[in-house]
Amino acid sequence: MNEEAADRLAPVLRPVRADNGFEEALERILQVLRLGLVAEGERLPPERELAERLHISRVTLRDVLKVLHDHGLVESRRGRYGGTFVLPGGAGPAQEELRRRVAAVDVEDTLRFREVLEVGAAGLCAEHGLDDAGAGRLRAALAATHDAPLADYRRQDTRLHLTLAELSGSPSLAARYAAVRATVNDLLDRIPLLVRNLEHSQRQHTALVEAVLEGDAEAARAVMREHCLGTAALLRGFLT
């Protein structure tokens, strides 16, 4: 890739944060494709360059490229003139269907409102503490996400987040969260389940529940904020 093309990518291929490296790197490269910064048939920058620009490991980058490959957006070619090439059809029927089905949803408003409610609920639970029954409910909801088969994961994930909202002590917050979560789930149902992302989410879920049970409100809010931002990065990457 020549110097002019590399400069064209600079506004998008920025370093990502370590906490959500996979999700944000995927969002960045999807943006490159959506914006046409690398045209159909052209080659993406070499793996080493992409990893350096995004400040991620080669392992994480390969996970990102596999997702793009699995969804027919890029292909890998071997040999002297090999590399990762953008396939025709990145804006084809499947992607157009995704855009059409979310056209009526204000994605940014939904994601921001979700973040406010989730971070607030996590902080309230940690600050005010949970009784034995509440702590038991939260632990059980977390365990269910760990044990869930892939096909049932999002349902159990929803239950965990709804449990946290209900335990915040604010019925108004819980009701509003239930409504916004329904919209978030509608969006999530239109993007693929990514095992790498689910593993990351599970680590965040565990850290979140530990912070809540230990009464560390600052940590609970911080973990929840990062968790929401990771999901937001994926949704923006696939849907906007």
Describe this structure in words.
- The chain folds into two domains: 3-91, Winged helix-like DNA-binding domain superfamily/Winged helix DNA-binding domain (Arc Repressor Mutant, subunit A); 99-239, Four Helix Bundle (Hemerythrin (Met), subunit A), CATH 1.20.120.530.
- Helix content is 68%, strand content 3%.
- It contains eleven helices and two strands.
- Helix 2 crosses helix 4, helix 2 packs parallel to helix 11 and helix 6 runs parallel beside helix 10.
- It is elongated and about 65 Å long.
- The mean pLDDT is 89.
- Residues 19-89 form the HTH gntR-type domain.
- Keywords: DNA-binding, Transcription, Transcription regulation.
- Pfam families: FCD (PF07729), GntR (PF00392).
- InterPro entries: GntR_C, TF_FadR/GntR_C, Tscrpt_reg_HTH_GntR, WH-like_DNA-bd_sf, WH_DNA-bd_sf.
List the helices and strands and how they pair.
Layout: H1 3-9, H2 21-34, H3 47-54, H4 58-70, E1 74-77, E2 83-86, H5 93-101, H6 107-128, H7 132-147, H8 153-166, H9 171-188, H10 195-213, H11 217-239
Helix pairs in contact: 2-4, 2-11, 3-4, 6-8, 6-9, 6-10, 6-11, 7-8, 7-10, 8-9, 10-11
